[in-house]
């Protein structure tokens, strides 16, 4: 830095003139001071440049942290959406199971009613004369046909509900797999953000160290220059 060269030359000249005296001593002092000033100026410049570079690297890492955090937020939102869908699937499975239970209870009730009707019909048939046998047989056949039809309907409904439950369970597992994958992605992003934070801290520390180094050089040079000017 030129300013250090100028100040060094002036200080050196002052020392040469005050201590030795004469033009030659003044010139030699000026040259020596200029050299010292140039060296210090270069040291200060190098330290400031290094501090600026470290600051830039720290800022780049901070940008990386921000990007990773935004990605984590996006992943979290995706997880929330999938979890909402997963809850809906679980609710549908629960409703299908409740429907199966209601069908089973309804079937049991209908079966009990039919059994009671058959018992009453048999009792009436026993009490009736032989001429009523044909009617009893006809009523029994109709009852059997009705039971068969009800059983087939019940089986179809139960099979349909079981299939829906199975599909829902599979979908639930697929959704959970997606959630686990997203959690894994979020963990990777968080790890990368943590690494970037560590690097940012390291670069910031370096920048502070180089800044302090430059300040020390300038302080030392200032003290030396002041001492030299005090000879005047």
What does this structure look like?
This protein is mainly alpha-helical and 232 residues long. The chain has one domain (2-229). 95% of the residues lie in helices and 0% in strands. It has helices at 2-19, 23-127, 133-229. Helix 1 (2-19) runs antiparallel to helix 2 (23-127), helix 1 (2-19) packs parallel to helix 3 and helix 2 (23-127) runs antiparallel to helix 3 (133-229). The longest helix has 105 residues, at 23-127. It is rod-shaped and about 140 Å long. The two termini are 25 Å apart.
Keywords for this structure?
232 residues; mainly alpha; 0% strand
Structural class: mainly alpha
H/E element sequence: HHH
**Helix proportion of residues, in percent?**
over 70%
Number of helices: 3
Give the overall average pLDDT: 77
How many structural domains are formed by the residues? 1
Compute the separation of the termini in Å: 25 Å
Characterize the main sheet: none
User: Which range does the strand content fall in?
Assistant: under 5%
DSSP strand count: 0
Task: Lay out the secondary structure.
Elements: H1 2-19, H2 23-127, H3 133-229
């Amino acid at each position: 830095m030129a300013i250090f060269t100028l100040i060094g030359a002036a200080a050196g000249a002052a020392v040469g003139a005050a201590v030795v005296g004469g033009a030659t001593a003044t010139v030699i002092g000026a040259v020596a001071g200029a050299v010292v000033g140039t060296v210090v100026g270069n040291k200060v410049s190098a330290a400031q440049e290094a501090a600026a570079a470290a600051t830039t690297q720290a800022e780049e890492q901070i940008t990386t942290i921000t990007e990773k955090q935004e990605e984590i937020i996006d992943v979290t939102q995706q997880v929330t959406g999938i979890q909402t869908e997963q809850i809906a699937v679980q609710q549908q499975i629960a409703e299908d199971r409740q429907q199966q239970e209601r069908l089973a209870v309804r079937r049991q009730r209908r079966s009990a009613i039919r059994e009671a009707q058959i018992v009453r019909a048999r009792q009436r048939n026993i009490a009736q004369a032989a001429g009523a046998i044909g009617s009893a047989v006809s009523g029994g056949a109709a009852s059997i046909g009705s039971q068969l039809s009800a059983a087939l309907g019940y089986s179809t409904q139960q099979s349909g509900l079981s299939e829906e439950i199975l599909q829902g369970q599979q979908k639930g597992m697929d959704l959970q797999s997606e959630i686990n994958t997203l959690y894994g992605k979020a963990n990777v992003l968080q790890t990368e953000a943590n690494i970037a934070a560590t690097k940012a801290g390291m670069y910031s520390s370096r920048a502070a160290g180089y800044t302090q180094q430059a300040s020390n050089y300038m302080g030392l040079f200032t003290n030396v220059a002041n001492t030299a000017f005090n000879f005047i």
